[in-house]
Structures are given as C-alpha cells and as structure tokens.
Amino acid sequence: MRVMYLVKSNHPGPPSPELGEAIQKLTAREVKAGRLLDQGGLMPISMGAEIRITDGKLNLIDGPFVEAKEVVGGFAVFELRDKEEAIAMATEFMQLHRDLMPGWYGTCEIRFFATPPHSPAQHL
Amino acid sequence: MSDTHRAILAVWRIEQPRLITSLARMLRDVPLAEDLTQESLLAALEHWPATGIPEKPGAWLMATAKRKALDHLRRGKMLMRKHALVAHELEQHEQTAPDLDSALDDDIGDEMLRLIFTACHPRLPRESRAALALRMICGLTTAEIARAFLLPEPTIAQRITRAKRTLSESGLGYETPRGPELSQRLSSVLEVVYLIFNEGYSAARGDELLRHELCDEALRMGRALTAVAPHEPEAHGLLALMELNASRAAARTDAAGDPILLADQDRMLWDQLQIRRGLQALARADELGGMAGFYVLQAAIIACHARAASFAETNWPHIASLYGHLMTLSPSPVIELNRAVAVGMAEGAGAALTIVDRLTQEPALKRYYLLFSVRGDLLQRLGRMEEARADFLAAAQLTANRRERDLLERRALRCITPAGTAATGG
C-alpha cells in the first residue's frame, strides 16, 4: 500500500547536522530497499502563501504568518506492505529526531493513499 | 496472527535487509546469514510480547543477530575454514559493545547486490530462485510465499532448504560478480524478478489481491536492483516495464472484476507517480545506451501507451517498429502476434491479418487463445462476421480464465449481425 508521511512541527529552525545526516542515511537505506518512492523537504510557510475561503470569499494570505499550529515541513511517499510496517517506519524516523535533536517536537502523520484496491489483471 | 505478532514482523521486515547484509559480511555466507536473521526474528517474537517493542528495535535486532553470528563463529568450524577473514572482525566486535547509534552506518549497497545475485544464482532452478529471492530479499515468510504461489507450504520450504544447501555446498554462498560477469549474471536475476511480477500481474487464479502483492515485491526488488547496480540498462529497463505495467492496475478491471481492454480503460485511473518513475527508469536506460535491450524495448512499447492521452492518439507505427526490433532480438510467435496487433492499428486490419494468418501455422500457437482473439478482432473489423465469431468462440474455449471467457463469448455474440456492428480495437 502507498503511504504518505507528513512531518509537522512548529519548532523553529532547520534540523541539526546530526539529524540531517541520519535522515540521509535512512533515505539511502530505504531507496536501496526499494521502499521509498519520493520525498522532499518544504521551505518555511513564511516563504509560501495560502489561499483560503472564508465566508464564501477567496482570500490570499501572503504572510506574515503568526504560526502557533504545526505546519508541514516535509513529506515522504513509501510503498509498504501493511499498516504495521508504516507505523514501524515512522517510529524509527521519529526516534532519530528524539535522539539527535533533543528539544524538537512535532508529529509524523501517516496517511494511506485513496487508490482503488489492487485488481486482477489481463493481457492486452 | 496477533497484533503484537504483526507489529514485530513489520519492524523485523524493515530491518531485515540490513540485518542479513551485515551478517553476510561477518559470516561470508549468505544462506547462513539468512538463517540467523530468521533466528533474530524468533528471538524478538519470544521476548517482545512481554517487554514491549524496544525503543530502538533495529539496534536490538542487530545486536541479537550479531551475537548469534559470533556464537556461530566461535563454535568453530567456520573459524577454522575462514579464520584469516573473520578473526579480525571477531576481535573488533568483542572489543566494542554494539554501538546502538551507529546502527544506520552500515552501507548495505554492496552486500545487497551480493544478496540479490546469490538468491538468483543461475545454478538454482528458476522456481527456487523465485522463492529464495522472496525470502532473502523481501523477508517474506515461507507461508506467505506458499500462499502467493498457490503451493503447499512444505513444497516451498523444501525448495528454499534445497536451494540454500546447493549454494552452501558448492561454495557459491558469498560471491559478488563484478564488471562483465555482473552483466552476464544479471539476466538470471532479471528473469526471476520478472517471473515474480508476472505471477502477480497475470493472476488468473487464486486470491487475486494477495497475488497482486507479488507485483509489489517484484517492484521493490527492481528498485533495489537499480539502486545497487545503477549502470545496468536492462535493470532499469525491467523496472520501467514493471512500473509502467503496474501503473494501469486500477484501470484494468471493472467493479465486478471483469477485464477492461486497453482501448476502453479510463486513463485517469492510471497511476501518474508510477508512470513518471517508469519513464525515468526508461530514460536512464537510454542514457546508458541500452535501448536495444530485451526489457528496455518492451518498456519502450508500454511507454508509448503511457504517454498517449487517449487510445486514438497512440503512436502505433512506433510500437510496430519496436516489436520489429524485439522480433529481431528474440524471435517468438507471441511477439510477432503483438506486432500484428500494432500493425493492425498503424496500417489497418488487412495488413495485420496477413501476419496473423502466417502465425496460425505455428505449432506453439495452436492452442493460444490470444491468437484467435486477435484474429477474430481483425476479421470483425474487416466485416467478415461469421469467421470472426468462430474465432472468438475458439478463443473462449481455449482460455482458462472465466472472465476472459465471458468477454470473448460476448464479443462472439455481437458478431451475429454483419450490418451496423461497431468495430473495436483489441
């Protein structure tokens, strides 16, 4: 099943060099294991913008953002066997944060793609 | 299987590639490394239900597996035979307690390559290679492999045991082909990965959902292979072929599970991420100068479909010419039949029928339902309804797949009235 991980935090600043290095190693391992399909980090929300509908009107919010809530900082797409595997993978990823960037807080959201169930196949 | 059991198996599977490759390096014996990796799973299944899954399960499993490997080495025989190689490593392990934080430091690339080539050794029968690959590379249990191949568990267990014994006894349990040898041995790896993929992709029987998981396992192996052998165009070609074929999975059957022909598929259901990955792999094969390879050519054909916004916009002349190249490279009546389909779309049903009529003489296709299905389609398009009907019915009788049979019988029925029958592509 295809899984998207959304890493959310409002912790300021980039990952520590140790964490960055560990994540790179994890990424390399997962590419070699054939499980990681896509991943990326996102620039801070202050550099982006939002289009929001409020009271039926479109509003462009182009900063400044006073963020109290957690925002998505990165994502990854994996192809995994089951929910247990998805949880184990995220747990390992978050444990790295705990070990290598003390004081960091945040959430790794585990979401499954809403693709139709696999179907049997025919040639031609 | 309990929830805890499943959770433990999941953790173990994530760590399995790194466990087996690290142990293989210590022991210089891939089959033995696989045994001990399994033992670390058993240890986890024994301890974790009581203690809970440890904070760093990967480090726990690695420490356990390495301890088992050290025990094994100490027990002697191995040490006698390979003492020069292992003594140094043994010393190092004994001096330093396992460093839990450096668990990610082992580069598994080279060992992964060795693992894949060992599991798919040409000395082993094809079926054994497939079972061993699913076990050693993907970490599937014997029971899961048996279910996927619709075979009794003891049959699979026996295949795996025999294959591992063959490897160990002939001293093939730890070798890495390099350079030209790697390219040579690659075909026996690609063949196995493709066999596993097709077992799931063309599932005509059994638990279809479970069997589709074989496609996912094959894709995982294909991706792993291109990551550890990045300079092999055919590895990229096979990956492209599998990604592009799998991208259509959701569009290939309707809600009742009946097949939908390519011409009628809703292309919005094709998986764009997978198509992108497939086209990237194909481009990589091209950069490596591999466009004339067996898998690359097939991937290039499927890529024509993936790139076409609609069936009508498909580049049929290009597909026909790619099948022509494939015929030169690896002559086969089945490939020629596929070429005929493409020619039929590019130049018309008449030109295709000439090819297909030649193929009816082929002994290998005497009972091949697709030959009759394709011929029926061409005759229908030429308005020769009686003959078309006969061919559809012949095809229906020859297929083992119930849904395919229903579809062919429906097509035969539509051939009764010559006038006003819409021709559809096959």
What is the total number of structural domains of chain A? Answer: 1
Distance between the termini of chain B: 44 Å
What integer is the average pLDDT of chain B? 87
Which class do the helix and strand fractions of chain A yield?
alpha+beta
Please count the beta strands of chain A (DSSP E, at least 2 residues each): 6
Q: Count of helices of chain A?
A: 2
Radius of gyration of chain A: 18 Å
Describe what this molecule looks like in 3D.
The complex is a heterodimer of chains A (124) and B (426). Chain A has a single domain, classed as Alpha-Beta Plaits (2-Layer Sandwich). By secondary structure, chain A is of the alpha+beta class. In chain A, a hairpin with a 2-residue loop joins strand 3 and strand 4 (57-61). Chain A is globular. In chain A, the strands form two sheets. Chain A has a four-stranded antiparallel β-sheet with strand order 2-5-1-6. In chain A, strands 3-4 form a two-stranded antiparallel sheet. In chain A, helix 1 (17-32) runs antiparallel to helix 2. The two termini of chain A are 25 Å apart. Chain A is built from two helices and six strands, in the order E-H-E-E-E-E-H-E. Chain A has helices at residues 17-32, 83-100; strands at 2-9, 36-41, 50-54, 57-61, 71-79, 107-112. Chain B contains 19 helices and no strands. Helix content of chain B is 69%, strand content 0%. Chain B has helices spanning 3-27, 30-51, 57-74, 77-95, 109-119, 126-136, 142-148, 153-169, 179-201, 208-228, 233-246, 272-287, 294-307, 316-329, 333-346, 349-359, 369-381, 385-398, 402-413. Chain B is elongated. Chain B has 426 residues and is mostly helical. The two termini of chain B are 44 Å apart. Residues 96-102 and 420-426 of chain B have low confidence and may be disordered. Chain B folds into three domains: 1-99; 107-229, no CATH class; 235-312, no CATH class. Chains A and B meet through helix 1 and helix 2 of A and helix 1 and helix 10 of B.
